[in-house]
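Figure 3 (text version): structure tokens given as input.
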């Protein structure tokens, strides 16, 4: 098959640069022909590809469905091939391109996201579930657990209450109140999906029922509730570890605004490129993950920990439980029972041999089933 892989925007610590590169290399290893291009959402860079025919055209978090030429025609109408918008986060953040009246397919990293697309965007032609595969590691850099110096590592952005208040302050007061109420419902029930929390609130408090064809629009309007819920979970987990006396290293934007009395236990590294942050995993004993409301999928932090020789500690999802065994391939925790996390970590940090057994089992599992090649080979993406 012939693929066009588009690198359209530098986001998330330049992670897309690496994703597009690894995806392209993996497709080539599977015997497919791959062209690459950098568009940065500029139509003129796409024009040389208008006359070429592809089986699949893939762009991550794409704006292409909304882009038009000067004559008013859709850019996608000039690209010859099945277009796939590979969404790296919840579809509610991509309402505008998903609503565009163009033919498109979607790839999701969570099975609940697939259900959301099928329910609220019925015009989407096809929806696939393909998690982000593990990033390649260098075997010679992988040290035993005993030789690693970072007890617990978390890579990701911190969202402060100050930032949240600033965002709310520019919202209409009624909208701000709704966002906070929906956020509080999600905070109190970590299993609650954004759309369900929205429907619950409007039905019970506003006494109205949102038509199904308007739910996605309302979810997008109230997206800050999802942002706040994910940020609150992240904050609680890190704060709980510090209060329990566990040293934590964090890497990402915003952490300078994290307020704590246990600052001597918190090591804040500056934000760095995705590829650079992966280098930290070689020296971490435990890589912490807090899902950004992926309630039935897997985050690349989990797989990258495994492929770089660290123990993955993550909140659980049905997909994770189907593919990995707790305390064998990784360590699972429940956001509804945060008090158990410090106890679990303390026990493992005193037992290098137990952690090494997890690392060894995880390495085998991830290399067998969660490389990009395997995930793609077993998907409908490469089926005629």
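Below: residues designed for each position.
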């Amino acid at each position: 098959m012939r693929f066009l892989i588009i690198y359209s925007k530098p986001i998330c610590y330049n992670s897309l640069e690496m994703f597009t590169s690894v995806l392209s290399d993996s497709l080539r290893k599977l015997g497919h022909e791959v062209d690459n291009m950098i568009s940065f959402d500029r139509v003129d860079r796409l024009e040389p590809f208008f006359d070429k025919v592809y089986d699949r055209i893939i762009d991550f978090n794409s704006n292409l469905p909304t882009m038009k030429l000067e004559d008013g025609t859709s850019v996608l109408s000039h690209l010859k091939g099945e277009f796939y918008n590979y969404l790296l986060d919840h579809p509610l953040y991509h309402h505008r391109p998903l609503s565009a009246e163009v033919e498109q397919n979607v790839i999701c990293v969570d099975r609940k996201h697939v259900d959301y697309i099928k329910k609220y965007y019925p015009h989407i032609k096809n929806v696939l579930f393909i998690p982000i595969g593990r990033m390649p590691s260098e075997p010679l850099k992988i040290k035993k657990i005993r030789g690693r110096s970072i007890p617990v590592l978390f890579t990701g952005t911190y969202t402060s209450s100050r930032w949240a208040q600033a965002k709310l302050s520019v919202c209409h007061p009624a909208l701000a109140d709704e966002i906070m109420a929906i956020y509080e419902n999600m905070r109190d029930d970590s299993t609650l999906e954004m759309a369900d929390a929205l429907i619950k609130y409007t039905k019970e408090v506003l006494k109205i029922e949102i038509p199904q064809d308007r739910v996605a629009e309302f979810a997008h309007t109230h997206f800050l509730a999802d942002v706040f819920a994910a940020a609150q979970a992240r904050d609680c987990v890190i704060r709980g570890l510090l209060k329990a006396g566990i040293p934590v290293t964090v890497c990402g934007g915003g952490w300078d605004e994290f307020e704590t009395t246990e600052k001597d236990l918190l090591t804040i590294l500056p934000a760095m490129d995705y590829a650079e942050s992966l280098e930290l995993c070689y020296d971490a004993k435990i890589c912490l993950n807090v899902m950004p409301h992926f309630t039935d999928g897997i985050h690349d932090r989990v797989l990258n920990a495994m492929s770089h020789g660290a123990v993955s500690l993550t909140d659980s999802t049905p997909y994770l439980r189907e593919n990995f065994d707790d305390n064998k391939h990784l360590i699972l925790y429940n956001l509804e029972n945060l008090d158990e996390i410090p106890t679990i970590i303390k026990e493992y940090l005193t037992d290098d041999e137990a952690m090494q057994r997890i690392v060894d089992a995880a390495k085998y599992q991830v290399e067998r089933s969660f490389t990009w090649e395997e995930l793609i080979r077993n998907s409908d993406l490469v089926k005629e």
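The mean pLDDT is 95.
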